[in-house]
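Internal tracking record. Fields below are filled automatically when a chain is submitted to the structure queue. Please do not edit lines marked as system-generated. If the sequence contains nonstandard residues, flag them in the REMARKS field before resubmitting.
Queue: standard
Priority: normal
Entity type: single polypeptide chain
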Amino acid sequence: MSMDEFIGINEIARIKGLKSTRSIRLAINQGKYIAREVEVNGGKSYEILYSSLEPEIQDRLDEEELKTTALVPFENKVNFVSEHAKLAALAKVDIVVALNNLRKKYPTKKEADSVFLDLYNSGMYLPQIYKFVGSISIGTLHRWVKTFENYGTDGLLQKRKTNQQGEYNTILNEEMKQIFLKYLLHPNKFSIGKAINLTKHILEKRGYENIPCNLTFRRFAENFKKNNYSKWILFREGEKAYHDKIEPYIERDISKIEVGDVLIADGHVLNFQIINPFTGKPTRATLVGFLDWKSTALVGYEIMMSENTQCIASALRNSILNLGVVPKVVYQDNGKAFKAKYFQNIDFDEAGFNGIYAKLGIKSVFAKPYNARAKVIERFFLEFQEEFEKMMTSYIGTSVENKPAWMKRGEKLHRDMHNKLTKNYIPTIQETIKFIDCWLDYHNSKPCPNAPQISIKQCLNSVQKQEIDKNILNDLMMKTEARTINKHGITFLGMHYRSDYLLDLREKVFIKYSLFDLSKVLVYSIKGEFLCIARQVEKVHPMANHLGTVKDMEQFKQQIQKQQRRFKRVKKEFLKYFPKEKAEAIEIEQGEVIEIEKFEQTKTPLKRKLNFREQQMNIPVFNADYEKYEWLMKYGCTNPEQRKWLEGYLNSDEYTNLYADCEHNEKNVFDQEGVYKNE
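SYSTEM-GENERATED OUTPUT FOLLOWS
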């Protein structure tokens, strides 16, 4: 019915089941409907605009219109004519026309009909029609001729009566159907055969004697499934299966967003083992990733032992730094970790919200629970599983059923081959990150699904970079650990981190770190104040001067220089409190003098100075040049050879790097006897 059509109030009253039109007239006067005044039988009445009526009244009017305008009664069976039946009817018409033409050439119809039938059934005459229709009898031929003369082509159509959609004629009564459907639609998903057996058992207990056969029940079940598929899925498999298998997808126009506008976040439990850096044991970690919807590139991720807010925050930090843009919207999972207070307080739209997204100007959108098809990142993880995870030597499968052959019981051949080829190698987190980055380079070289003419990487690089304040990201999103400062600085993951600022501290601090860059950690006080950046200590060659390379020697020199500089600074601070000048005697009041008995003091014998021969015998074996230099500084030179060596060492690069800036080496001279001393 047209939206601008007017309906009489008497018709509307009938549809509503009202005895009079009084209430409708009252509603018109109150402005509830759009109506016009018309003359009826010398009086006045009203007609109401169709579009202003209630939706249920519109549906009733449309239904009645359909019933009245249908070619066949709405509630009756309909005649269905297939395409095959239409072609068969046309072939029959051709046969009848060919027979009538042949009859004109023979004196009698009987003779002509006999000749035509022999020619047609031989397959030589009208071969194409014969292949389609097949052989016919004289009786069939005469019936077709008579039907065509009386009813034309429509009379030759084979029409069969069919039921309405979903309707199925069966000998099963309503009680049988209800019992059978009870088991057929059970969430435990009984098979059709099992549901039939249970139904027949119940019917026997209720006194039924003539129970239909299994085929009758099976045909009913198959028909019910075909015509009630949504019920079949919902009742047997649940709501998630209903949403995934029945509900149509929402078509989204990706061209309306740009790279960096929307990031999709989700967690994925890795299907291979890595070494837990905190325990040193193999475990399955969680990868939390942020995928750019436009380019379908994984712009940032983090690996943690469990999905938590810190992991998600660090992954978002990496995403923003890699992308160079703060996203406008983050579309993320409905998990507890994502909805933690760390990310949201009450409402993202509230003024004064201090959450991480609000500070960065990001709008958060949560997906419906278990709605995998709404997240593009799920397709990425499927590719990640097939192309990357299955290539890892520590791959253990997605489930117990899908674990690799070498992990199954009794598979000694596969287990021995796996051990021989892989050596039971399990990667660390840092190694895993390198492997993932290599695979991402390959993945991003593929054509972009949303822009097939360019690659994923090219689409990703089209974003306009922004100026990102890394300090804000570091403060908000790096993972935090509590540590106590000791002699070695800060110990974390079996490594030492030091800074000159930490020399005087022996207290508990917080460190912020990223597994993607363990060369440094950010150190904060318990109150949250930033203290310094502690860098990882580089280990040096134990015998750098003798067995190490030039690089090893240089690293060793730099370590010595650092120690000397630290000591010099501490010494200067010390001299501020204890200057070199002689301290003045402190005058004190003399008290009562107590006389004590005098005793004879035993003199300590003086240590005899070693002669030249004895000094030569006591010279130690030096492992490095700086050790020899330190010994000569303490005991002096005893021969011209030592003085010559010392003169050469004072002009060497090692001396310049290690001792040139030291205070006790600024005024070194030789005395008249050639002994090296400090002024």
